[in-house]
Amino acid sequence: MITENVKRLLEEIPATNPQGERVRLVAAVKTQTVEAINEAVAAGITDIGDNHVQEFRDKYAGITGDVRRHFIGHLQTNKIKYLLGKCFLYHSIDRLNLAEELSKKSAERGITSDILVQVNAGNEETKGGFAFEELGGALEQITALPALRVKGLMAMLPFSDDQILLRELAARMRGEYDRFNALFGGFEYLSMGMSGDWKLCVECGSNLIRLGTSIFGKRSA
User: Fold this and answer.
1) Where are the domains of the chain?
2) Residue 111: half-sphere exposure toward Cβ, Cα within 13 Å
3) CB 3.0-4.6 Å disulfide test: which of 6, 101, 140, 152 passes with 187?
4) pTM strictly above 0.90
């Protein structure tokens, strides 16, 4: 099933978004076994994303192939040390003190960490990230920190059947991405879109999608 799902998705996902940027797929591997992940990698997955630091650590040595490791979940500052130097891209920098601690720890290790700044596009209390109104000030502070490179923005759209609302939010995310890239430069990734909404997000300009259920099926936990 996993192999077939990956091959189908790689055929279905457009090579580029409307802006002409390559669309990249990150397999969200929360609760998946090493065997399942390796099957997905063998089928063509090049990037995998973990939600939990412990899972990242426990599975790290068992993942085969030349695969990039992303961290896509909520990150506690005291667990940064377990990811340093092993994480291709941190998607979920959702508060200033997390960026400051990652900057500090990266500088101490003599490395530069690539990050995305998380936006709470739907102003949802259950999700982290900066409100649209806070984003400019947050980026100004974060881009000034040493040992970090801001490579773009990340968002999770609300769970909603209102397609007009979702499209408006996704389009606004793309607008903010372009606006702040013009100001700060260096952006490469707009990480937006999961198994239920990735097509809409790509149509609105996302170039990095995070799919779990579409690859592995529904999680049991």
Assistant:
1) 2-12+21-216
2) 15
3) 152
4) yes
